[in-house]
Automatic annotation (TrEMBL):
Bias kind Pro residues: ranges: 7-23
Identification of the protein by name: TetR/AcrR family transcriptional regulator
Superkingdom to which the source organism belongs: Bacteria
Domain HTH tetR-type: from-to ranges: 35-95
Organism: Actinomadura chokoriensis
Amino acid sequence: MATARPDGPPSGPPAPELPTPPGRRPRKAAPPRQPLTQDAVIETALRVLDAEGLEAVTMRRVAQELGTGPASLYAHVSGKDELRELMLDRVAAEIRLPFPDPARWQEQLKGLAREIRRVYTSHRDIAMVSMGLVPTGPHLLDVAEAQLALMRAGGVPKKIAGMAVDTLGMFLDADAIEGTVYYAKAPAGEDPHAFFEEYFGQFKEYFSALPADRYPVLTGMVEELTDPDDDGRFEFGLDLLVRGIASYVEDEERPG
C-alpha cells in the first residue's frame, strides 16, 4: 500500500546557508519593496528629474526605479503628462509665499518672482512643464493666488492682474528654461561661471569683428550685449514688468 507524501516542509532545524561556490557572485539581499503610492511615484520622478533632466522622466524609467512595471503606475497617474504636472505642483510647494502688504506690493511681487525662479532652477528644466500649462494643482494655485492677491492689494485692476499673472509666468518660465540650456553647455566638473565668462567672451570677439558700417549700433554696444550678468538681466526684465503693471493702478480698484 502506497503512503502519501506529506505536503508540508520537513520538520527540524532549517538547513544552514551554504557559502557561495567558486566562480559565482554572492547574491545581494533584495531591498524590501515599498508600497506603491502616487507620492512614491512623484518623488521618484523628481529624483530622476534632478539627476538627469525632464527628458529622462518616462513612465518606464520611473517604474524601473521603483522596481515594478510601467503598467502598475497607471493606477496612480494617467500617464506621463499628468505625472509631469504633479511633479511641477510638488515643486511649487517649495515656493515661500508672502502675506500681502499694500504699501510694498511691488517689492513683494518681485520677491515672489525671485523665489519662483530659485525653486524652478533648483530642479533643472522643470519649467518646461509650466510652459502652456493652465495651473490646476493646489500648490500652483496657491502661487497664482499669492501673485493676484499682491497685485489686487496694490490697486491693479482685475483685468490687468489677470493678464499680468500670465505674462509674469511666461517670463519666469523662459528665464528658468534658458538658464538650464546655458548651464547644460558647461562641461561636467567645470565651474559654470568661469565657463560663461569664456563663452560670452567668444561672442564679444565675434561682434567686435562685425563690419561697423553695416551694424553701427550693434558694434557700438558690444560690452553691453555680451555682459554675462544673468541675474542683472533677470532683475531688469522683472523691474520692467512690475513697473508696467504698476502703471495701470487705479485707486478705485483697490480692494476695500
